[in-house]
Automatic annotation (TrEMBL):
GO terms for molecular function: transferase activity. It comes from the Bacteria. This is Glycosyl transferase family 2. Keywords: Transferase. It comes from candidate division WS6 bacterium GW2011_GWC1_33_20.
Length: 60
């Protein structure tokens, strides 16, 4: 119907299996290895935000 609403909750339906967690960690390490030199020297990144957490929390 034209009044239907679709909500996507990212990976809520995917379970955190050991394999999935290992794959995600492996992918994160590959990303950091390839792009870390750019991420740490990004002149446009807000210095008040953490690069150590994926939620970009405020650095204290």
């Amino acid at each position: 119907t034209p009044y239907a609403e679709l909500i996507h909750y990212e990976s809520v339906t995917r379970f955190n299996t050991k394999e999935r967690l290992e794959r995600d960690e492996s992918n994160a390490l590959k990303l950091r290895k390839k792009w870390n030199k750019y991420m740490n020297n990004d002149p446009f990144y807000n210095v008040n935000l953490s690069i150590d957490h994926e939620d970009f929390r405020i650095t204290i």
